[in-house]
Each structure stands twice: as structure tokens, then as C-alpha cells.
Amino acid sequence: MEIRGHHFLCILGFRGLGYDEKFVKNMDEIIRKLNNEHDMLIKAVDSVDNICSMCPNNVNGECTEEEYPGSVKGKDRAVLEVLDIRPGEILSYREVTNRIKEKMTEEKMEKICSNCQWFGLGYCLEGLKKLKGG
Ligand code: SF4
Predict the structure, then answer these.
(1) Measured from the CB, is residue 65 less than 6 Å from ligand 1?
(2) What residue owns the CA closest to ligand 1's atom 4?
(3) What's the total number of domains in the chain?
(4) How confident is the model over 17-44, as pLDDT tens digits?
(5) Domain containing 112: what range?
(6) Which atom of ligand 1 is nearest to the CA of 51?
């Protein structure tokens, strides 16, 4: 399973919203799998991943929202840097969530994610707080 850096945070806030029905169904299935198999190995990436595979913005394996300042690729790299994970590194989902608990803060998340169309809903910050036990 490949997951791009910023999607580790989107997963925390997911409440069934997304670009279209196919996208939502795929993301829901991936999250269920991850939640049921914490030892599953994940390749952390900064390009299209398993969640992107059903996205309408994925054109021939490239994200059309990817290459501009503050875009999703920048967010991937910023998230991975906070979590101390190299793009391409393979680690268990359990380890990823442990790193989020330990290293990601609400302030850092706000800085990375505030220009995202979904961030204003507040679900992602709530997801982070819940993971951290708050
Ligand atoms: S917008 Fe880009 S990064 Fe986000 S899910 Fe779609 S293809 Fe992936």
C-alpha cells in the first residue's frame, strides 16, 4: 500500500466526504483496511498513491493539483518531514500513527493544511486531537 504524506492526516479526518462517489468508496475501504491491520506495511510517498487511484484529479497517474506552491506535493513533504519519514520509506501503519501522535501538533497541522478546501470543516484537527487522546 502506498500512501502520500498529507493523506496520513486526511485519513484522521475522513467522514465520508470526497471528490465523488468512487473516490469516497475507495478511501473508505483503504481506511478500514488500515484500521484493521495496524501492522500493514506502508510505502510513504510524495506522489499519487492508492487513495489517488480513484480521484478525478488523477490524470494518467499525475495529480493535477500537485505542482504549485502550497500544493499537495508540498504538503506531503512537509508532513513527512515533521514525522521524520523519507519519501519512499517503508514502515508499518502502527509506526506512522505513533509518529503522528508523537510529532504532529495542531499548530503544525494548521500551518501545513490551512489552504486545503477540506480543512475549514474542522474534521482533520478533531481527528488529530482524538488520536492524541484529547
Ligand atoms: S487531489 Fe491529487 S493528491 Fe488529492 S486525492 Fe486527488 S490525485 Fe490524490
Answers:
(1) yes
(2) 52
(3) 1
(4) 999 999 999 999 999 999 999 999 999 9
(5) 2-131
(6) 5
